[in-house]
Batch of 3 targets.
Target 1
Amino acid sequence: MVAQDSTSIPPPVSLLAEITHRCPLQCPYCSNPLELERAAGELDTATWQRVLDEATALGVLQTHFSGGEPTARRDLVDLVRHAAGLGQYSNLITSGVLLDQAKLEALVEAGLDHLQLSIQDSRAGSADRIAGYKNGHARKMNLAGMVRAAGLPLTINAVVHRQNLDHLAEIIDLAVESGAQRLEVAHVQYYGWALVNRAALMPSRAQSERAIELVRAARERLKGVLAIDYVVPDYYARYPKPCMGGWGRQNLNITPSGKVLPCHAAETITSLSFESVTERPLAEIWYRSAAFNAFRGTAWMPEPCRSCDRRTIDFGGCRCQAFAIAGRAEATDPACSLSPLHDALVATANEAARSEPPPFVYRRFGNARPSAVTQSAPVREAEPATDNRASSAQP
Ligand code: SF4
Ligand code: FES
């Protein structure tokens, strides 16, 4: 690991506050760790407020409240109000199924600046099956109308994969109809739950190429109406994306129990250990912790990254993907065409995309081991609240 001089490290710009892992949805590509944090292990309100104070002092300008499903916490309004009082730009990343008019109004009154609503598909039946949640899609569309009526800026997030990518044109139409200013189309990233479900989720190259063309045309057609963020799926790209804008360069993520991570999936890298806001000030963790300094700069890079012209553009790709595929977080991201593992990775992807999709392994507490749940398994209404801080989990 490379020690860094803190004067050469810029402060973080944004904080992803994962205030809970509880969530009524069960998406098979969830970016939360396989071992989900229980409600009893979550930071309390006062600690989150102290963390927001420390983040602001450190230089953070935006706080994204996320989860799990952040609206499962009763104190979300208090946390949003606290962030607003600190001058933070606050964004709520939500599945939307637990929000009603009164809760939305309370969040707006507390100073919420923006809402990102995740959808699973354009078609209700498919969306509810992917999320493992009955009538979830209808609730989301209802919420989109309420957000628009409240005058709150709205982004629609759509995670795409082989089972919904052919509906992308409809997803774009849905975003326009729901009054969103922005649509984020994100291909599944294959670590954690998504790696368990890779064969069920991996699109074919032909599917991906059709999607790229479709987005290109839609961007042109919808200029001034809808901004579309779209990143080419890793496995079929020539070079990887600069994941998180580089490890420990711009963003930090805090888990429900207070662990501070450089990205939401960092705990999948079992060779690193991460410090907690309950043990050390946030600024010290950002500037001095071994985990944050492990992949800063370029000195840690092996070949071919070390002598590659793109090393300060993509920073060697994604550390979590490198660990998941290569077994070493410092390896060149196998999504890169220059990685010695790239061809094998693409062959695996092609093979997965050719075969019949296996049943999803849904994200559930205690379902960390791949015991498949059939795709026709009954979808559930809600995750029962497991502590007295949880809001009514009945949407
Ligand atoms: Fe990026 Fe490394 Fe690939 Fe170069 S070799 S393009 S730095 S991942
Ligand atoms: Fe962790 Fe890419 S998701 S570095």
Target 2
Amino acid sequence: MLESIIIAVIIKGMERTLIIVKPDAIQRNLIGIIITRLEQKGLKLIGMKMASLDEAILRTHYSEHLDKDFYSGLEQFMKSSPVILMAWEGYQCVNSVRTLVGATNPREAAPGSIRGDLAIGTGRNLIHASDSKKTGETEVANFFDDHELFNYDKTEYSHIYEDFERF
Ligand code: IDP
Ligand code: MG
């Protein structure tokens, strides 16, 4: 009984988000700073790899934008170099990562956010982050096989979370 309550809490509170470090960030040597921002937030990295994205996976990933004027340019851009794919985990982390990433248009992104500090153009906004808990689960599953995702303890968690947040 207690175990099922604990599992329910884990499912309720812990979230996964997909981060894509886009080609502009690769070219501008910003991979490290982006990882640093996410690490410093207290998130746990549970998967990471480099990949070249093809048309098929981009059309799935950006399906809501297929009919937009910018889609063709977006696809070309996302194919222009490899990207870094990462899965991060944290308590209710999806929305707070979106805040950390900043608004889609970097000129409107808050100072202190990744886009707000490091980017200007909407089509060169450095990073993708999942936009809901459900999208986070779906996107992580679309880009990572189960064996590429890691479950491990972080010793610092007692300094990042209260017990009810991490169990
Ligand atoms: P998001 O990345 O903040 O979730 P979305 O609206 O989902 O933003 O758009 C996906 C991506 O498409 C953006 O991150 C950006 O790279 C690109 N994009 C969105 N709107 C524009 C635009 O008006 N011009 C050029 N590229 C755009
Ligand atoms: Mg989006």
Target 3
Amino acid sequence: MPSRARSRRASARAFAVGAAVIAAGALAAIAACSDAGAPAGPGTPGSSIHEYPPVPFGSPPGASSAARSAAAALGRGVNLGNMLEAPTEGAWGVAVTPDIVDQVAAAGFQSVRLPVRWSNHAEANAPFTIDPAFLARVDTVVAALLGRGLTVVLNMHHYRQLDGDALDYGEVAVPAGVVDVRFVRLWEQIATHFRAYPSGLLFELYNEPHGRLDSTAWNVLAARALGAVRRTNPTRVVVIGPTSWNWAGALSALKLPNDAHLVATIHNYAPFAFTHQGAEWVSPRLPTGVTCCDPAQVAEMTGPLKVARPWADAVGYPIFVGEFGAYSTAPTASRVAFNRHMRDSMEVLGMPWHYWEFAAGFGVYDPVARTFRAELLASLLGPPAP
Ligand code: BGC
């Protein structure tokens, strides 16, 4: 099992921005688009999970050339984290501003992973309609990123009830019996909305499934969501990762749907004692002052990659690292060394990557000074070390 022991992170982040503001904003968003008292009538989309049979899974045919090209186009990328996957945009201190879109593109990143907390912006009961204003907001961001020539991985992030986690501050629970079908129905709506977008837009079904999403549950649910996406997007490239927070060690239990337009993903925060030192959302809080990267740490970093590469080759799909990074509480020189090692190791193994993340606690960009943190940027995109 991975060592990603986590506690509720929202409480820590909420302090930064003002709890009252978040609560008011999030509750207003839910109230505006939710009718919690209304029973779903027969025929209401999303009334039953059985409306969404899983795509058969377990004997995937191998990746299409479209899936391979899409994965290659990811290249070197970055997560726009803590923005649209906060309970409401801005609640964790950063938002997707035009400046940020410009800077991502100008720096030379080839792709962006866009984490989005759809679950906090949709009805609690069928048909689980996504707040049109939020959908329009995400649409604006996706269009702006694509317009800058970036490949975009649009995901679903932090649907807390799906993992069986406690809600973040500012969220409202939905009935337990609808959690799964709501997930699939959200994807049906997202896919319908973005159906006409170019192939440079990829969908990633769910960030870091864990908890109640064990491999058995996740394999079926992912296949159901893929079926919902395929109703409107027959060839859209879809990204699927394993359980245990997208841990490479759980790849062996991931049964990909029998579909060619897929790409696999993992996350890699090893060595966790280095990357998450001082992180407020990890309990117990890990001591600071840990440096990187001695040979044992390098082995920890590269171990998951060396599991993922042969797995992907054997199933016949590309794989990329959707998150890696070290928190700002780690010593800067060590963060630089960590990024360099990770980047080189992933690239040697032919794995595209997304650094976690752009402008918040792991940020390669300082949104206040409106400038890149030069050493971090160079560690990711600069010339190879002499
Ligand atoms: C989470 C982030 C978190 C990061 C590092 C991501 O998967 O979504 O909120 O900061 O992991 O822990």
